[in-house]
Amino acid sequence: MSRISYLIILWFLGLLSSFSFGQTIREERFLIVLDVQEYYTNRKMSEKEAQNFIDSINFVINKMRSPNVLYVKSIHKVLNLSFSSPFVYVTHDTSSMRFDKRLHIINDNIFSKYDPNTFNLFEINDFLKKNNAKDIIIVGLLAEQCVYKSLIGGKKLGYEMFVIKEAILGKSEKSKEKAIEKMKKEGVKIIEMNALSYE
Description:
The chain is an alpha/beta fold. Helices cover 41% and strands 23% of the residues. The longest helix is centred in the first third of the chain and has 25 residues.
């Protein structure tokens, strides 16, 4: 075998190994979409704001491998009073459970939560562990509440946590910026949405 042939084979093997490494990194990156539900998008924001927000989230979803996207919705408990037994009982507000119709749902990885910290849900932790998750991106609502608490919850479990500024909303732009500063101090990495197009 000539020296040139040998060098070509080495180059080709190097190329294959770098491709495999890249695939492994992508397979370990997961996206959690939090609380993009009609209760919030139809009642708490303008039509234009909601559309821009959902377009940003859909852009991120479309950059991910389909099996690596998780959708999480909040379930609201409603306290009911009655004149007959049982006098007090709890039901679930199903209207708040519906995802916004504009959200791209690309798989069946759908979870429901009662707690602001998504990582307090056993099913999520079990799913991520079984799939060897390392890096987790969180998008959705709200920056100061579920997004922040879930990012910190993930950090405590040893995940590398990321957030995309354009794909989260806060109670106001000012409070969102304050929440992002807190996230940075806790070691959360902020990704610019336009950077995703180069991955």
